[in-house]
Amino acid sequence: MLSIGEAAARFGLAPHVLRHWESVGLLAPARAVAGRRRYGRDQLYRIAIILRAKEVGFGLDDIRAIMTAPNPATRTDLLRGHRADLARRIARAQTSLDLIDCALGCEHEDLGACPHFQAILTDRIAMTAAPTTA
To answer: Least CB-packed of 13, 53, 63, 84 within 10 Å?
Structure first.
C-alpha cells in the first residue's frame, strides 16, 4: 500500500491530481489511520488506465463512464464509439506523417508542384471542393 505522495510520484503526478480523480469518481483508495489515503495494486492499475486513456484523448467524463459502466454491454458500446474515433484520428495522423515524409524527400523548388506531394493531397482537395450549382 502506497501513500498518496508515493502513488503520485510513481506516475510523475502531483498528489492533487489523484485527489481530483477521486472527487470525480475515478479512484477509491482505501483509508488508513486518520483517514489517510492508501493506494493498493488495483488503484495503481486504475491510475495507469486513466493515464493511458488521457493519452489517447479521452476526457475524465468519458473515462468515468467507461470505468463505471453498469454492465459489460454498455462498456462495450462506449468503447466501440471511442475506438472508431481513435481509428479516425490515427488515420489522419498517418496521412500527415506520410505528407511530411514526402516533403522531406522532395527536391522540387516548389513543394506544391511536386507530383508525389500532390497525389497525397488529392483526396483533401476533393473533400474541400465547393459544391457546384446547376
So the answer is: 84
CA distance readout (Å), 105 to 88, 108, 112: 26, 9, 13
Scanning the structure block, which residue is given the C-alpha cell 462506449? 78
- Rounded Cα–Cα distance for residues 47 and 26 (Å): 9
Residues 77 and 62 in one domain: no
- What is the pLDDT at residue 5? 95
Q: How is residue 114 written as a grid cell?
A: 511536386
> Which pTM does this prediction carry?
0.70
In the chain, the percentage of residues whose pLDDT exceeds 90 is: 61
Q: Give me the domain span that covers residue 60.
A: 1-68
Last residue of a domain, one of 23, 50, 68: 68
